[in-house]
Amino acid sequence: MANTLYPESYYAASANAVPARPALQDDVETDVCVIGAGYTGLSSALFLLENGFRVTVLEAAKVGFGASGRNGGQIVNSYSRDIDVIERTVGPQQAQLLGHMAFEGSRIIRERVAKYNIQCDLKDGGVFAALSAKQMGHLESQKRLWERFGHTQLELLDQRRIREVVACDQYVGGMLDMSGGHIHPLNLALGEAAAVESLGGAIYEQSPAVRIERGANPVVHTPQGKVRAKFIIVAGNAYLGNLVPELAAKSMPCGTQVITTEPLGDELAKNLLPQDYCVEDCNYLLDYYRLTGDKRLIFGGGVVYGARDPANIEAIIRPKMLKAFPQLKDVKIDYAWTGNFLLTLSRLPQVGRLGNNIYYSQGCSGHGVTYTHLAGKVLAEALRGQAERFDAFADLPHYPFPGGQLLRTPFAALGAWYYGLRDRYGF
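Structure for Gamma-glutamylputrescine oxidoreductase, as requested:
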């Protein structure tokens, strides 16, 4: 049987106390059945409940078990492919809609935290750090691009300024986004789940969806029960398996690795990141890091295509951490874990509808914390008959990975090897 308890991680060890939630053992009737209690599912459920829908959420393991409870905890705006790439793909009109939505997810997170008093160590400020003049040039054009869509909380950092923000001498400059920031991601998910229940929504854990009976009144079957609904939202992302075969061909689960140090103490923590911003570098295969509420350093990076769990996560990530911060050479690593995100060939999210009543959003491609919160709102709007924003995502073109499921992992790994060379040699 699959492991349905939280994997050992810093987040699971420091999670807020929550009630045990039952497995579904009955036949239930509802307006909307949401499959997956990660950010996409919880965000959808909250927006729907706030608009008067009856909602039942099915979770195969525990709330936030997947990427929502294991990620780097960084609030990063836009998508995994930026708005200029979208513009070239779909034209200015659709890009205009998607561009204005690119900064909404971070606002939704802050609104949720304030409205439902969610304790998740929310901190403002995220930094993109440039390792070369070429990357700095990209940040300058990214700032102009984002400002075109009304996003103004941005500041370019020269070499002197970035040293004031992060004690790492690798960077030639960077960009600070004050509407970015960081959170304890599992506690955000747990707080959103409590908000769902406070509005009358039901969440069943240890209740995997094993089969969807499609039709005018769809039914979702679990091992011991079923949910009859008017609508279904499929929000399983990298943990969906083959429940909806149409979605599996165009996406691939990928693993990313994270380590967490022992507590560093106030002085060392303040020395590393004086303003407590989170940081990600501008490499294609990027590293990212931040401080926790109790002054540990969380450091992540690396991608494992096909989502195998590497044998020794610390051996992969610790050298990256020490390259950025050699001053941590004697610091102990208390936690190391991996989690899967869902990659698409275009690196843009896949949003759509199967038949008239099964909606889905998946494939954030490593950019999920903000996008999933926006997706919940967009899916809820579509169910209420306001589909303009939903259609802007649904019309994005998506293609299967070359070579089908058998060859998608080696192809993607080959692409990553090429981009790794580009990161290293700057071409």
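The mean pLDDT is 89.
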